[in-house]
Each structure stands twice: as structure tokens, then as C-alpha cells.
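Hi R.,

Here's the chain you asked about this morning:
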Amino acid sequence: MTSFPPRVYIVGAQKCGTTSLARALENNPEGCLSEPKEPNFFSGNYTRGLEWYRECFSDLDKVLVDASTTYTMCPLSERALAFKSGRQKQVGVPGRIKSARPDALLIYIIRDPVKRLYSNYWHNRKFAYEDLPLMDAVERDPQYRHLSEYYGQLSLYLEHFDKSQILVLKFEDFVKNQQHYVNVCERFIGVNETASTQEKNENKSREYSPLGQLLMNLRLTRKLGHLVPGKIKQAIRNRLSREIPTLERADEAKLRAFFKEDQTMLHENFGIRY
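And here is the predicted structure, written out as C-alpha cells:
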């Protein structure tokens, strides 16, 4: 089959190191990561058509990689679907990928479900998408839970793909030995293994001040951000934010109870659990 549409998809989960993994695979001379890294073609941009999608890749002769985390953001309940109308675009993604690329290879990197949810919550707080306390936010919007229900998301892919086409990795293992798991992914997608490309993973959430939130959401800030030296950018970030609070034990216990059944199914089908 031709290189396009892409054969390789890093489908999520959000806040689990997908950017680091995608960049590592891009460093392989046989790989070509899309620009932007998350084109979200099979979700939000599906109506733009294949020609638009093709333009996201600079070298069609290489192994093309799409790392859109929206591909495992399907609302798993009617309540979550109704919360935001735009979520309808994330329904049916596995079938669209199957139609475009039946031999697709899917990499799903996951994280302790409670820690992923907590990081997701503070990500939304940082950009002022969320203003409720944690447990109130989780109660209002079930999608926080759905994005950490890994088997629930995978089950939608298993309706279209063989299990052998899906590689599930633990974020915690990836952080401890990044190069080893990059090589695991390279073997999975059928490219030559690279030497060390270890890089720092940037998934630490922070609590931003009102001024910090304002700057984060200004379009001008995003456009000019790449012009600011990294050390200066980090110093500004530290001045306008602080480390997020520790998750309360009582809240953690309640959240873990949410994921018990999903974790059982994940272990039974993929041999992984937290």
C-alpha cells in the first residue's frame, strides 16, 4: 500500500507523553510526523478531505505518523456527548481510520488513570477552561473519566482492528526507559531502531495565576512564544504559576473506584493495569 494515508497513529491518551513519543519517532530518518503534530483529521477535521490531510506531511515517501490524542477522546456516555456539541466529531473515529487504512498500526500510551485525570483537570484550569473544584468538575463532565477509561476507548478500536495492530504502553515505563520503548515502537511499526534520543518529558501540570491564565490564552503569546529563549520562558512560567496541589486521599479513593471495572477489562485483554 502507498504511504498515504498514514499507517501509524499515536492515538493518545492525552497528558501521557504522546508528544515526546511522536518527536522521538520523527527523529528516526524513516519517519515523518505530521505538521501540526495533531492534525485531528479523523475527528474534528474530517470534512476538510484527504487533500488537506495530505498537506500535513512533508515527505510522503517516509513512514507517516499522526499523533492526534482526540482519536481516543470518544464520549462514552450520552451525558458526556451532550455536554459539548463538538464532541460528536470524536464519535466514529476508529471506523474512519479503518476505511482509510485497514492495515493501520495504533500506539496507545496510557498513564495511571487517576493521575491522568488530575493532570487533565489542571491543564483545563491553566487555560481557564475549568473553574470548578476537582470533584465538582468530574461530576459535571463525565468526559474527565472517559478519557481515563482506556479499555472503553480501546474497545471501539477492537470493533475494527485486530489486537495485533494495537500497541499499548504505560507512560510510567516510557518515562523510566524512554529509549527502550521508542525502540519497541520502532519495531512495531517496522522501521530500523535508532540510537539514544532521550528527551525530558514535559507533562508536569502547574497552577497559573489569573495573569498567567490570561497570557496563556492570548493568541499573540502563542504566536511569539517560540521567539523567547527557553530559560526566559521557564522563568516567566515559574513566576506566574506554582506546582499543583497534592490530590486529596479521599478524592483519590473515589476516583479509583470509578476505574475498577475498566481496569479489570484492560488487564484481561491487554495484560496491563494500575
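One quick note: The mean pLDDT is 89.

Cheers,
M.
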